[in-house]
Amino acid sequence: MAKERDLVVHVAIYESIDLAKADLDAIEQLHKDDLIGTFDAAVVDKENGKPNIVKRMARPMVQVIPDVMGDDFDALLPYDELHGVASQLSSSEAGLIVVGEPTLDKAFDRVLAKFVAEGVEPGALERAKTRLIADALYARDSQSDLARWYGSSLAIGQTMREVEEWPAEIEAVGAEAVLAAARRFLDRKPAVTGHLLPLEAEAA
After folding, report:
1. pLDDT tens, 99-157?
2. b/e per residue, 106-144, with b = 16+ CB within 10 A?
3. Edge-to-edge strand order for the sheet containing 94-100?
4. Contacts of 56 (CB under 8 A, 6+ apart)
5. How many whole angstroms separate alpha carbon 1 and alpha carbon 27?
């Protein structure tokens, strides 16, 4: 079992539970393909102001994330960490907590190299585009989501027309364009990775 001091916590916030579940499934597949090390992961939302685990990694090699009721004494992640994540969520959002060995950087390098070498799987590309377009359409049903979408887009220099045409532009994206973007922008050579560590006094 990985030692507690060797564990790294990754947290991501999603606009919906389905998006968080999709990434949890992807992490499980990487785990099965032996592309990442020992990990535990779970999708969390907020229920009556308290953290609620929606879905967990099916067969984690290390039990790190506690049960919602806090009665899992073997778990290494403090129950307060779940409260901390849940407190940041709105009623429609979900969080993905991934805890394990600090191997994601190397795993990313391997997955990216494989992606660039083998290209885009057509089925995966279509599923990704369908999910993005569906999210954009669902956002139009919520006044707050719609306002946030337009506001964030206009804040980075996009126009109203660009926002309205975004779903059609995503639908038109082909495999070659995705691969070209990956080769141009997903270059790890100039990348910098930061690690947030406790103060020496706290770690002692």
Report:
1. 877 776 677 777 788 888 888 888 889 988 998 888 888 878 888 878 888 888 899 89
2. ebbeebeeebeeeebeeeeeeeebeebeebbeebeeeee
3. 8-14, 94-100, 39-47, 50-56
4. 40, 41, 42, 43, 65
5. 19
Determine the Cα–Cα distance for residues 95 and 153; give it in Å rounded to an integer: 23
C-alpha distance from residue 15 to each of 24, 69, 144, 200 (Å): 14, 25, 12, 36
Give the three-state DSSP class for 202. Answer: helix
Contact 86, 45 (CB under 8 A): yes
pTM of full prediction above 0.70: no
pLDDT tens digits, residue range 150-176?
888 899 899 999 988 989 999 999 999
